[in-house]
Design goal:
The chain has 101 residues and is an all-alpha fold. It has one domain. 67% of the residues lie in helices and 0% in strands. Helix 1 packs across helix 3 and helix 2 runs antiparallel to helix 3. The radius of gyration is 17 Å and the shape is flat. The structure holds zinc ion. The site of zinc ion (ZN) has 5 residues, from helix 1 and helix 3.
């Protein structure tokens, strides 16, 4: 007997939500994990507009790929957007972001 579709999807949706939360937390903090904020000038390559631009290009390429599964694309998208959000928020601080490093 088939289950009601909403009941069938609930565990899957909460699992996806948990994965997205973990990916967002990990990759949102990744720039400061790679370049810990130990002083005012800690922002180098991994906190740069160059990295931000590269991630935009990678995101475009991944979205265009037909051979990647929807789940893989969602994982890459979540990771890059979380990382990029960190950079965009840092860019709005008085120290901003370096162009390259
Ligand atoms: Zn940062």
């Amino acid at each position: 007997m088939p289950l009601d579709r909403t009941v069938q999807n609930k565990p899957m949706q909460s699992e996806k939500l948990a994965h997205s939360a973990v990916i967002g937390a990990l990759y949102g903090a990744m720039p400061d994990i790679l370049e810990p904020p130990t002083n005012r000038f800690h922002r180098k390559f991994f906190h740069s507009f160059t990295t931000l631009g590269a991630f935009i290009l990678i995101l475009r390429r991944v979205e265009q790929r037909q051979d990647y599964s929807a789940g893989f694309k969602a994982m890459i998208r979540s990771s890059l957007l979380a990382y990029m959000t960190h950079l965009l928020l840092d860019s709005r601080t008085p120290m901003g972001l370096p162009l390259i490093f």
